[in-house]
Please model this.
Amino acid sequence: MLYTQNYLNTQCDFERPHQSIYTHLSERQVNMVGVEVTDVLELTEEQAKLVQRHIPAITMLMAYYRKFGEQALNVAREWAFRSGKRRGEDAKRRMNLVGTDARAMEALFNSILPERYDEETIRKKLTRISTEKNRTISVSEGFCPVMAAVKMLNAPWNIVCENYSVPFHLGLASAINPRVKGELPKARWKGDECCQHIAVIEE
Model:
């Protein structure tokens, strides 16, 4: 018997908010949904919901990558970038944000943090945003829903992040200023203690 959080069940029972939620999947059931479960993670209800959001996209990315190779990754990066840009533009309109500098990017990123991380991670500042001149620096060293989804699906961490998380983050930044480039000096999939996304506005 394989055990996994109830990410794939749309009828999750979240009546016990401080307990991890488990579904028992037989090996046959796991094969039916195309997912190989190799890890069991202790998650709160809030964390489980955040992870669940990423399961369909990561599952689809890996399915197309297995079928079409590098060509699929090009499409995935473009899709993720466009998705991030649309989300950034929506938040920008909601906030009535008119700036195009790094401070405006910082404000946008901070407004979206609750959608992407759990309350405890934000409260403990394990994910945080700062600005230095023309660059906005995002650091994440706590719970990461994409990392949890990758572990659960046994997906290659570097492929998922480089072609899904990283372009989405750059898309968000481009909603503030299209003349932005991304840097990733640190990444946990490379063995670093944290992920560090830097959005730089080119002068």
The chain has one domain: 46-201. The radius of gyration is 18 Å. DSSP finds eight helices and six strands in the chain.
